UniProtKB/TrEMBL annotation:
Phylogenetic placement of the source organism: Bacteria, Bacillati, Bacillota, Dethiobacteria, Dethiobacterales
Gene3D superfamilies: P-loop containing nucleotide triphosphate hydrolases
Name of the protein this chain belongs to: ABC transporter related protein
SMART domains in the cross-refs: AAA
Pfam family, one: ABC_tran
Annotated organism of origin: Dethiobacter alkaliphilus AHT 1
Length: 224
């Protein structure tokens, strides 16, 4: 069953008196339990598409639905807090906080039901993603790039969302770390029934995905 549905989605940027469309009439259903990658050349609209799924931009034409309910029926902040987790290439962690504090902050802003023992949950999440308690208590600026990306993934999971989006999540890490992060995304999809959607240039990630979509001329080409 689809958790995210995209219907006739288009997005444009004003160009003088014209509209320059970067996305045009996209239709697609994203399901839980699957790991998706979205490929495309620079400027193809990948980041724009992900921003719309993450409710960081408003839908101009067409619709995005979460479990059948249009994004237009929600406050965009509600979608970001409660429905969809986002992992950024640049991590976007709070630099003056420890790893565990970064994860706990996410729990304080969601309206989803979170158990009272938030600190224990944060430590357990980080441990599951390969961050020991010793490292969890360090400032995130004292962690490697790969470790910071794991913290960012833990933060996205901490709000108990069903959809995880990631924008070039391995762009700042070495190949060994990239392989480990790919493994994490696959586990989230296959073992924890999350819908994981990753925008990437990486052939390594695409090779491991269940579904590979390529954005070309504003629409998806499904790789067989």
């Amino acid at each position: 069953m689809s958790i995210l549905t995209v219907r006739n989605l288009s997005h444009y940027y004003p160009d003088g008196d014209y509209r320059r469309y970067v996305l045009k009439d996209i239709n697609f259903d994203f399901e839980k339990g699957k790991f998706y990658t979205i490929l495309g050349q620079s400027g193809s609209g990948k980041t724009t598409f992900l921003s719309l799924l993450a409710a960081m931009d408003s839908v101009q034409e067409g619709a995005i639905e979460y479990e059948g309910k249009s994004f237009n029926k929600y406050d965009l902040n509600t979608i970001r807090r409660n429905l969809i987790g986002m992992v950024f290439q640049g991590y976007n962690l709070i630099p003056y906080m420890t790893a565990v504090e970064n994860v706990m902050v996410a729990m304080t802003i969601t309206e989803n039901e979170i158990p009272d023992d938030k600190q224990d949950i944060a430590y357990n999440l980080l441990d599951y993603l390969g961050i020991t308690k010793t490292k969890a208590d360090r400032l995130v600026t004292k962690l490697s790039g790969g470790e910071q990306q794991r913290v960012a993934i833990a933060r996205a999971l901490a709000t108990n969302v069903e959809v995880i989006l990631a924008d070039e999540p391995t762009g700042n890490v070495d190949e060994d770390t990239e392989t480990e992060i790919i493994s994490i995304f696959k586990k989230l999809a296959h073992d924890h029934n999350k819908c994981v959607i990753v925008v990437t240039h990486s052939p390594l990630i695409a090779a491991e995905a269940d579904v590979v979509l390529t954005l070309r001329k504003g629409n998806f080409i499904l790789d067989e």
